[in-house]
Specification:
1 helix; mainly beta; disordered C terminus
Length: 125
């Protein structure tokens, strides 16, 4: 009977956030908003990002210097009631920390020589 018991051990999964840096390709290609994409190979040194049907990018990890923090921005809802608003002042925004990063994934255009076909065998000359 004891063999059939399932032991639930609490295993903590560590989440890791990565910033996708597309600055290098920004001026070369037009990436439409809400374009479908596939990001594969995150556990490899050079992940592949395919945007739409034809745009293929190859990435390379870079370690951050220090800690890179990621924030979300929203409207400040802490003020309620009537108060005077200065028309020259920007509306107050609330900023909340989301995560910290240790890696940046920098992408560039993928060329045919960047990735070798894993199924092809080397040819001796």
């Amino acid at each position: 009977m004891e063999e059939n018991l399932v032991h639930n051990e609490s295993v903590e999964e560590e989440e890791e956030y990565v910033l996708l840096n597309l600055d290098e390709v920004r001026g070369q290609v037009d990436i439409p908003p809400n374009a479908p994409y596939v990001l594969s190979g995150l556990d490899t040194p050079n992940p592949i990002l395919v945007i739409g049907d034809s745009l293929k990018l190859i990435g390379e990890y870079e370690e951050t210097i220090g800690t890179c923090l990621v924030f979300s921005e929203g409207r400040n809802k802490s003020f309620s009631g009537t108060f005077i608003i200065d028309p020259n002042q920007a509306p107050a925004k609330e900023v909340k920390p989301i995560a910290s990063l240790q890696k940046i994934l920098k992408f560039r255009l993928l060329h045919e020589g960047d990735v070798q076909d894993a199924t092809s065998e080397p040819v001796d000359i």
